[in-house]
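Help needed: design a sequence for this.
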């Protein structure tokens, strides 16, 4: 009698095992993590996994997958393990020097596109500024959405700017994205030379940052998350100066944390430089993006 052989570790079998194992260990989004990491090992898309679900894995492929699963079990974010994250349907490089782009940040792009669509002369040859660019997702997407625009991307982290440079090259907008290192607006002269200014600044209160899940607190850069005691320390500094760089009628769009939108709108109003601010909710109906237009001389 021949010994009974165990079934082969096919794509489907290993995916089911990994998903159950990650779930048992309390890892968030276990199904997505299992699929993304296996696709990364096999250098294919997640869709291709399910089209080839009965393919047995080689020993080398299984070893690769086990190494990646161990990293995820240590709470390292899937995006840092693979080095990629999708944003605005584009693939961006990410690493621990930058915040992982979130879907809600796409609301800034939506707000800017709506603003530009309402301009009497259209998007045209605009100048845009992204403050705290990180991986460069906002700067790159805006450069692609506005093919005639020039975009300045600011960040105080040299490592973040290096990655933003890679992403601008990856998406072929490097000739229209200028990278500048510095703390908020300090590298720029206070002159009204931008039509649109966007920012996803740190806005998590320090006490809340200390309670974040290890996936975030232990891996993502604190500099990009911790907004001080009430979460508004960086936003206050930004709002106090950003109107000096906006042309009349120009737009500022800021991402903010839960429960902060009204306070940020009030900060903008206190400058007496803007028309009344608008608050845009995210998909959970949380006020997530605050926008305001710079007053014109006739306002």
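Sure. Designed sequence:
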């Amino acid at each position: 009698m021949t010994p009974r052989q165990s079934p082969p570790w096919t794509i489907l079998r290993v995916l089911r095992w990994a998903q159950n194992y990650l779930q048992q260990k309390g890892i968030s989004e276990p199904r997505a993590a299992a699929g993304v990491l296996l696709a990364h090992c096999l250098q294919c898309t997640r869709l291709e996994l399910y089209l080839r679900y009965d393919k047995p894995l080689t020993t080398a492929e299984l070893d690769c997958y086990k190494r990646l699963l161990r990293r995820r079990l240590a709470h390292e974010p899937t995006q840092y393990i693979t080095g990629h994250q999708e944003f605005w349907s584009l693939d961006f490089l990410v690493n621990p020097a930058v915040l992982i782009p979130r879907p809600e940040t796409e609301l800034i792009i939506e707000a800017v596109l709506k603003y530009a669509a309402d301009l009497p002369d259209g998007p045209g040859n605009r100048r845009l500024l992204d403050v705290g660019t990180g991986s460069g997702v906002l700067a790159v997407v805006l450069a692609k959405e506005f093919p005639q625009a020039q975009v300045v991307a600011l960040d105080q982290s040299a490592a973040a700017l290096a990655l933003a440079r890679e992403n601008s090259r990856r998406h072929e907008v490097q000739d229209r994205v200028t990278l500048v290192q510095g703390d908020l607006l300090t590298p720029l002269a206070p002159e009204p030379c931008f039509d649109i200014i966007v920012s996803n600044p740190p806005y998590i209160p320090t006490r809340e940052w200390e309670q974040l899940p290890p996936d975030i607190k232990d891996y993502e850069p604190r500099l990009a998350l911790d907004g001080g005691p009430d979460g508004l320390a960086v936003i206050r500094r930004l709002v106090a100066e950003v109107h000096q760089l906006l042309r009349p009628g120009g737009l500022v769009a800021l991402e903010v944390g839960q429960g902060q939108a009204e306070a940020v709108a009030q900060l903008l109003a206190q400058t007496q430089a803007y028309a009344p601010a608008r608050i845009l909710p995210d998909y959970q109906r949380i006020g997530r993006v605050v926008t305001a237009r710079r007053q014109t001389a006739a306002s």
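The beta strands are 84-87, 90-93, 127-131, 150-155, 177-181, 194-199, 246-255, 278-281, 287-293.
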